[in-house]
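Worked example (supplementary).
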Amino acid sequence: MQVRTISLVTFVFAVSVSSFVFSAEEPKPSQEEPPVRAVVTTTRREIPIEMATRFVTVITREDIEKSGETYVINLLRGVPGLTVVQSGSEGRTVSVFIRGTNSTHTLVLVDGVEINSLTTGTPNLENFTTENIERIEILRGPQSVLYGSKAMGGVIHIITKSKGKTGLHGAGVFEYGTYRTFNEGGEISGQWKPFSFTGTGARLDTRGPGENDGFENTRASGHGKLQVTENSNLETSFQYYNALAGIEDGPFAPDPNNWQRSREQIANTSYEVGLTEWWHQSVQYSFFHDMLLNIDPPNPGTGEAESRFKLDSDRHHLEYQSVFFVRDFDAFTAGYEFEYGEANNKSFDRLIRNHGWFLQNELTLWKIWQIVAGVRIDHHELFGETASPLVSSSLWIEKTLTQIKASFGKGFRAPTLNELFYPGFGNPALQPEKNWGWDAGFEQSYWNKKGSFSADYFHNSLKNLIEFDAKFIPQNVSRARTQGVELENQIQLCKDLTFSTSYTYTDAVDRATSKRLTRRPWHQGKLSLTYDWRKFHLRADWNWVGTREDQTGISGRPPREKNSGYTRLDALLSFDLNKWSEVYFRGEDLTNDHYQEALGFNNPTARFFVGIKARY
Amino acid sequence: MKKISVSLLFTALVLSSLPATAAEEAQPLVLKSVESRVEGPGLPFEFSFDGKLSEARTGKIFSTGTHAPDFTLPFLKEEPAPIRYPRWAVREGWQGRFVIAVEILTSGEVGRWKVMKSTGYPLLDRAATQAIRRWHFHPGMESGRSLVSCIQIPILFQLEEEFRGR
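After joint prediction of all chains, the assembly is encoded as:
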């Protein structure tokens, strides 16, 4: 009894001194949330990037801020394995090839929502700007095992900002530059537990170098997160783009008044819940709307008729996913995806449904050896079932700080609505395009982990590729093989100076004709430098792209032509005025190469911008 | 790697069988805190003694300090149940400081307990409390006689960025 009394006293006493005790001794956790180098694309759940068994590049918000780039595509230049081709100046069509595969083999996701067009198969990446992006993950190699159709070459996953700092914050930017380019934008973000949100709006206007090279782009986005209960979150996000670009009729065929409007809306809601330590679930519904309007009025002095084309497409997408954990060595994922796509214009109104089921197991042995294996079955309304397996593995060697990685998998691409049904040339009997691919390589840390080097070899074998026959009907006739080497090195020479380099060799061949696939360079690379000195920050990105072959299809020109290589230097110099604002000078294409990424379309020459950023 | 480390700071506050009035007047028996780390959920339990990292072994005294000369501090009798960083908390990036006062009975079991400082996240509080309640101690001793004592155990839930590996 006496003992009890004493212990009660000690409790009281403990309360009185407790603050003294740990204020002196206890390390404090940092107020900010830790910078997490996470990746979600490889396994459909967030894991540390070092746990990834695939070759992934992550462009973080910090990288984006440092590079100062306006467009997402300029961040993708120089990423190992990627080739970015823009047909002319800002706002013109962009193709992104991963590991030498077609541009329709690049699946692009925004917060897990596919943005590839239902009708052309490629995303309108030219309209995507960087102001609302938290990070971009680029996964190379087939990934249909988790994402189904189109993930043959790889996946680009854009993750938008969702976390605000506590309280209410805002930011604004104004930029002016060559070709009367105005870019203004604002951001508002906040966090009041249990709710956080980020909203951005921006507008870009440029007249462009030529007569009809103007581009206007209005963007808005929002991302909110609500912690519903202790272990569940409700998230919702939307993106809106409305862009108007002057376009050309074709290679070497500028048009004084041909223009195209594209409008895209993405809405996405997800609910995630961790019912127990070993079971996490999520359900997501998303909607993607894509409107394309092309108007080409009669050119002055000609009697031709106005050409007008409009296409609307919608995609509804529902997915459910469960992840089961067995201690720390195994995670099992099972999920289902339903997709409903519809496209219509005056002469064409079709819809297509697809169901996908996927299973994945991630096993970690002795904390150093990971084996990830999965399979996905897709049921497409028209051509039936497709199975896409994938196995990947990584081994961490602590002694030498080396990680060895390898993967083998299959990918497919369902024919687009245009290829299936477009009046006059659709072919409903089309089968999916298929490939299998493997890669192997390693990542090495050196110099006290201040440097990292990665090298890998990749191989893709593609078949059933869709091409037009003599009657202009698409058929599964083509085969191709791509292989190459990707190298990447990053070194932090001192606290304020970082160098990174990358190099990609691509050998992409059409197996029917033994000719190279067009617009894929043999050699390409990048050299980046980041340097901070007092209040000055310098960043320079020097890209070089070697010779590649191209086809213009114009009579009088050779059927295949060599398109000479080019270099591109983008640089940013910024100066911190105070804690809340900075001014910057930025240049694009400073090497002033008069180059054509796609033969017949002039890319703009050197451009200079000056801007101011403020935030509170 | 998103390194998961639960840093434990043991601060033992012990009062021997002094009468209550004397306790109020006495200098607080603040014992030197000893930092301890648990690396990753469920991994071997380590703590540092004056900054040196060593493994938690059964029987090791993890508290030092000034106290009555014939008083022996309680110490861990067997390997403590690991505190697991809840997966959901890791995912959400939750961190926080947590302090629990536990009563160590003469049997060495944890008796009553009280959360002195919450992390702000019930999930983290529960993870620490549930593990610590299962810890077994050698009771505090005075003049060869075991008695009930009270210690405070601060826990730090912290996620760190690390380049690679541990």
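Two points are worth noting when inspecting this output. Chain A touches chain B through 48 residues (CB under 8 Å). Residues 1-35 of chain A have pLDDT under 50 and may be disordered.
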